[in-house]
Amino acid sequence: xxxxxxxxxxxxxxxxxxxxxxxxxxxxxxxxxxxxxxxxxxxxxxxxxxxxxxxxxxxxxxxxxxxxxxxxxxxxxxxxxxxxxxxxxxxxxxxxxxxxxxxxxxxxxxxxxxxxxxxxxxxxxxxxxxxxxxxxxxxxxxxxxxxxxxxxxxxxxxxxxxxxxxxxxxxxxxxxxxxxxxxxxxxxxxxxxxxxxxxxxxxxxxxxxxxxxxxxxxxxxxxxxxxxxxxxxxxxxxxxxxxxxxxxxxxxxxxxxxxxxxxxxxxxxxxxxxxxxxxxxxxxxxxxxxxxxxxxxxxxxxxxxxxxxxxxxxxxxxxxxxxxxxxxxx
Length: 330
Known about the structure:
There is one protein chain. By secondary structure, the chain is of the alpha/beta class. Helices cover 46% and strands 10% of the residues. It has helices at 3-31, 38-47, 74-81, 98-109, 128-131, 139-147, 156-161, 171-175, 200-211, 220-234, 248-255, 257-275, 310-325, and strands spanning 53-57, 88-92, 116-121, 178-181, 184-188, 239-243, 281-283. The strands form two sheets. A five-stranded parallel β-sheet has the order 2-1-3-6-7, sandwiched between helices. A hairpin with a 2-residue loop joins strand 4 (178-181) and strand 5. Helix 3 (74-81) packs across helix 13, helix 4 (98-109) packs parallel to helix 6 and helix 4 runs parallel beside helix 10. The longest helix has 29 residues, at 3-31. The N and C termini lie far apart (81 Å).
């Protein structure tokens, strides 16, 4: 037997082996369903109802305060203000970021062309605290949204076993990320971990790490945002971006005017990035004071966040409705 014949025999064996492995995997998946996150399946079913609006955001759009009488989410409040007959589907991810939202948008457009996308932008999502945190990177979800091919789903479990869905940043790398107050170096992420939110100085440092970064063109979320906008414009799809409110009262209490200066600088930079692509953004970053934020009602010494109570959600929903219906003024 010549070398060519031996090679052909070997290739045949490889193909037979692969066929057996793939067939077994399909059989196993028929007994044990693919490991697809429940929120993706639920969202897919909602898309089948052809919503007019698809609302994407982080936990801010669904969170409620302990004292709330009205427990409706922000998208539900907005839906109730809009004209009858408008259908809406919302999807949130804790600390969701622009690359994830971009993959979701492409996933949606393979199934349905909504009248409008609403994308909530949290200024904190551009900070190194969020961008590089491994828990906030969702590699498996992005894989599913990006490749969006049902037969591939049978391989999700074996891919997970072989660690195919590892975050881009490891915990060790995350601990080494540098933190800045504007352009002033403040230390590494490990210096900001495990802080005592009951201690005023630690609370101050948490605010610095999350909000006092200097936003630039090479920020990972800025790059993803630009790609998203260009894709939507090429597809002639309407999108409304808005910057979610943050607790300016706490920021001023702990950092004073430099906090307001940094928020205005970063929100202005972000607005310019979006508007130069020919799309408008609704900047609500400094619309509300501390009375409207849930974290003040949570357990003692709760860390600062952007979660809104019922009055805060209602105020944002009203602004969004005015923008959508063309009745608002900036």
